[in-house]
């Protein structure tokens, strides 16, 4: 395949995440609860992944490796719970903005835990991202005063746990086939949700039959497709371009909430979306000018000395 094919694959992976909030809102409008929605997503997604593992290449693991991956999957379950709690009180177009803060939270974790100081482009990117968040959240129009703070809290918690998942999962199981690794991580997330909220809804056939379509869509677009598509495309397009392409989740979430859920998205919020995407782009720029100026000056001095 050509490079743009892999870029399209990563774009589809990012877009998949953007679909979730709209599906969850539709499930809520039909009377389903957060417990039912998050549980059905992880059950369906995990089953689909393990079915795929049966027909793909896999590697034998020791008990210690399995436990490590299962523990690494805990943030997956928590992110689902926190984000879907936020969607109970926030519009889909706003909830995604708070989840999206994982960009700067992840950088902070990398600095504090990994001792990796952020680059100049990263810091500039974070500043732009925060400016975009101000626009998207409705703060400039006074909309933040009308937002339930409990929703904001759940949204920010989802960003923290999602950042933790990205940080932890990037350092474990990298030697495994992508589908096998994703299956074990999602199993850890499923176990977490089941401990917090026992899936009693599985005993009610009437509820289960109505929940299946939502669980399938959420499992497919939230648990199966993103990690698999990223594993295929990211190595080919690179982390820089890959991050930009994966950011498609935000505009997709906003567009779907405006079209399907008929949520009101103001021009200022659209400006915020564009600013956030611009911030991610800046974060992936190679500030080559800053890096090349010293070498240019030193070479110039050498010529003068000669």
Automatic annotation (TrEMBL):
Keywords: Membrane, Transmembrane, Transmembrane helix. The chain crosses the membrane at residues 7-28, 34-55, 67-86, 92-111, 123-143, 149-170, 182-205, 211-232, 239-261, 267-287. It is a multi-pass membrane protein. SUPFAM superfamilies: Multidrug resistance efflux transporter EmrE. Residues 7-137, 149-282 form the EamA domain. One of its GO terms (cellular component) is membrane. InterPro entries: EamA_dom, EmrE-like. Belongs to the EamA transporter family. This is EamA domain-containing protein. It comes from Pseudoneobacillus rhizosphaerae.
């Amino acid at each position: 395949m050509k490079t743009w094919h892999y870029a399209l694959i990563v774009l589809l992976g990012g877009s998949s995440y953007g679909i979730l909030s709209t599906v969850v809102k539709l499930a809520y409008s039909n009377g389903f609860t957060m417990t039912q929605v998050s549980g059905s997503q992880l059950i369906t997604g995990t089953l689909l992944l393990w079915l795929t593992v049966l027909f793909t290449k896999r590697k034998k693991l020791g008990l210690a490796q399995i436990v490590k991956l299962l523990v690494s999957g805990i943030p997956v379950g928590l992110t689902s719970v926190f984000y879907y709690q936020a969607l109970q009180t926030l519009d889909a177009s706003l909830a995604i903005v708070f989840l999206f803060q994982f960009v700067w939270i992840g950088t902070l974790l990398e600095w504090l835990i990994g001792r990796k100081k952020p680059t100049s482009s990263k810091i500039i990117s974070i500043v732009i991202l925060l400016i975009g968040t101000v626009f998207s959240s409705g703060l400039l129009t006074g909309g933040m005063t009308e937002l339930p703070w409990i929703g904001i809290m759940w949204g920010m918690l989802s960003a923290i746990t999602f950042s933790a998942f990205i940080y932890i999962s990037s350092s474990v199981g990298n030697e495994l086939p992508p589908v096998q690794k994703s299956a074990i991580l999602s199993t850890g997330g499923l176990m977490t949700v089941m401990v917090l909220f026992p899936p009693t809804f599985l005993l009610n056939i009437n509820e289960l039959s109505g929940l299946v379509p939502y669980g399938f869509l959420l499992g497919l677009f939230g648990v199966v497709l993103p990690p698999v598509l990223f594993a295929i495309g990211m190595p080919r397009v690179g982390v820089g371009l890959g991050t930009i392409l994966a950011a498609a989740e935000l505009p997709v979430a906003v567009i779907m909430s405006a079209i399907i859920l008929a949520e009101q998205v103001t021009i200022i919020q659209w400006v915020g979306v564009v600013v956030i995407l611009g911030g991610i782009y800046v974060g992936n720029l190679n500030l080559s000018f800053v890096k090349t100026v010293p070498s240019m000056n030193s070479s110039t001095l050498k010529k003068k000395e000669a």
